[in-house]
Amino acid sequence: MNAGELVDRSFVAAATPVDREWAWGGSRGAEVRVCVIDSGVTPDHPEIGPLEGSYAVERVEEDAAGDGRPSYRIVPDDEGDAAGHGTACAAIIRRIAPDASLTSVRILGPRLAGDGNALLAALRWAVAERFHVVNLSLSSRKGDFKASLHDIADEAYFNRVAIVASAHNSPVLSFPWIFPSVISVGSHEVADAERIEVSPQPPVEFFAAGVGIEVPWVGGGRSFLSGNSFATPHVTGFVARILGKHPHLPVSEVKHVLASLADNFADVSEASEASEAPRVPSPAPSPAFVPAPASVAPHPPDEPALSDVPAAPVSLATSTPSAEGAGHDESGA
């Protein structure tokens, strides 16, 4: 595009007042392709339905590219989900955007651990395939992957691929949620799946339901789990709804729409007159809050897990998958 070139109004949200009717009224996410990079998704699960595709990242050779790193490829996957985390996230997306198309890419194993290079391979593939939305309820704390993740996130942003990434549950630095090119998500404690809050203090940009969320779990059971991992697919579903109605919006405008729909706005002028600061939820004291997944373990169907809910729901320590490189607390291969 060159300076002076005309742009269709459908490419921006600012041309009209933004409310929920404008944002997604009548949209159920139809024709929006969502990629769930996680521990896999149980095929044909009754709460999810058929997947558009199910893939896994496979390690091929130790140094095929001659750069000192192992090589990976995306292959069809028939193993499903041995951990439950990916299935739980996919089910939440399906609740919010029932008509969206879901594709699974498995990078985490039964213990929710994985390899950072596998995360890079999965993200590169998802961007190359031009998925509309990528759900990433995990992150990496390894600085070695920061630059590559940043480059992929920027490529996604400029190609209208919205990466929705969970912030770490613990006050640690991890990636890619902290990058401004992704849509970063923490959790609030209100029992309302439709409630979205905008953060007054990024890098976490939005908060969604993430406390005591009922999800399907391994073995046909159910669990109640808390953490940013499960807030993230709520926002992924919202993004799918928005793109189902406004398919031309770039990621920057999607963020604008989400912020316009926030349920935690306060009238600053009125608050000032009353000598009272506007009430907006405060994020955790540290700038790093993403789901901490190594602590997410399968629970027997007759013993649903409900994590202790601390005062600050953003720092819940039971939710995101782990993988050094592809997650949080465990060493990957």
How would you describe this structure in keywords?
333 residues, alpha/beta, two-stranded antiparallel ribbon, globular
What features would you describe in this structure?
Helices cover 23% and strands 17% of the residues. With 333 residues, the chain is α/β, with parallel strands linked by helices. The strands form three sheets. It has a nine-stranded mixed β-sheet with strand order 3-2-4-1-5-6-8-10-9, with helices on both faces. It has a two-stranded antiparallel sheet with strand order 7-13. β9 and β10 form a beta hairpin. The longest helix has 18 residues, at 228-245. It starts with 19 loop residues before the first helix and ends in a 43-residue tail after the last strand. Residues 277-333 have low confidence and may be disordered.
